[in-house]
Amino acid sequence: MVAFEERSLFMSSLEEIKIVFSFSVCDQMEPPDEIVIAMYIRVKRSKATYFIQCDPTETILDIKQKLHVLIDQPVNDQRLILMGTGEVLEDSKTLADQKVENDAIVALTLRKDDNEFEDIDIVKPNDFYQSRDADGGSW
Amino acid sequence: MKKEDTVKLISAEGFEFVIDKEAAMVSQTIRNMLTSPGSFAETEHGEVTFPEISTTILEKICQYFYWSLQYSRGKETDFHIEPELTLELMMAANYLHT
C-alpha cells in the first residue's frame, strides 16, 4: 500500500488541504502488474503530446512502432528529433545510445506529400505564467 | 501497447496529452470516469476535456502520474515543481483527487 505522504506532494505546504485528499488515496493503487516503468518520453507535434513508456534498451524503431499504434502513421514516415540537442534519432540505435533520458521531449515530424519531412512544429501554450514571465516576472 | 489502453486529456487551450490509462488512473476522478459504467460519454472515446485546467498544469499533472507510478514501484526520485505553479497545481490536484 502506498503511504499517504508519498502521494501528497502537491499539498506539502498546506497541511489543512491534506485532509481533503486523505480519504481518496488509500484503496486504489494496486499496481496492475509488476513491470517497472523504467522511463517515459514526451513526443510532441503541434498541440499534441504523447507520453510513451519505454526502456533505455529499446531502439528508436521500437518507439516509432508504438507511435504507429497511436497516430496511424507508418514508421517510415516518422522522424524523431531530440529537443535540446536537435539531433535526429536513428532507428537502429537505442534510447540510451542517443542519450534520450526519462521525461525527455522528442519532436515528431511526419513525411509530407513531396516526400520531405516537415519542420518541427511544437505549439507552446501561451498561458498566464508564460505571459507573466514575458512581462519581466515582477514577483 | 494498444490504443484502447491510452486516454487523451485535453486542456483548456485545446492541447492534447495522450497517456496510458494506467497512469491516468492515478487520479481518482479520472479513474471514476473511466470505470463507471456508461455515465461519462466522452470516456467511451477515450477523451476527457478539462476546460478549467491550463496546458502547463495539465502537462505537469501527466508527468506527476508517471512519476507516481515509478515511485510506487520503488524508483525514488524527486518530483520538481516550479514554485509559481504550486497553487494552480494544488487546485487541479484537488479536483482530480490526485
From TrEMBL, chain A:
Signal peptide: none annotated. Pfam families: ubiquitin. InterPro entries: Ubiquitin-like_dom (IPR000626), Ubiquitin-like_domsf (IPR029071). Gene3D superfamilies: Phosphatidylinositol 3-kinase Catalytic Subunit, Chain A, domain 1. The lineage of its organism: Eukaryota, Viridiplantae, Streptophyta, Embryophyta, Tracheophyta. This is Ubiquitin-like domain-containing protein. SUPFAM superfamilies: Ubiquitin-like (SSF54236). Residues 37-115 form the Ubiquitin-like domain. Coiled coil: none annotated.
From TrEMBL, chain B:
It is found in: Nucleus. It comes from the Eukaryota. GO terms for biological process: jasmonic acid mediated signaling pathway; protein ubiquitination; ubiquitin-dependent protein catabolic process. Residues 6-66 form the SKP1 component POZ domain. SUPFAM superfamilies: POZ domain. GO terms for cellular component: nucleus. Pathway: Protein modification; protein ubiquitination. Keywords: Nucleus. InterPro entries: ELC1, SKP1-like, SKP1/BTB/POZ_sf, Skp1_comp_POZ. This is Elongin-C.
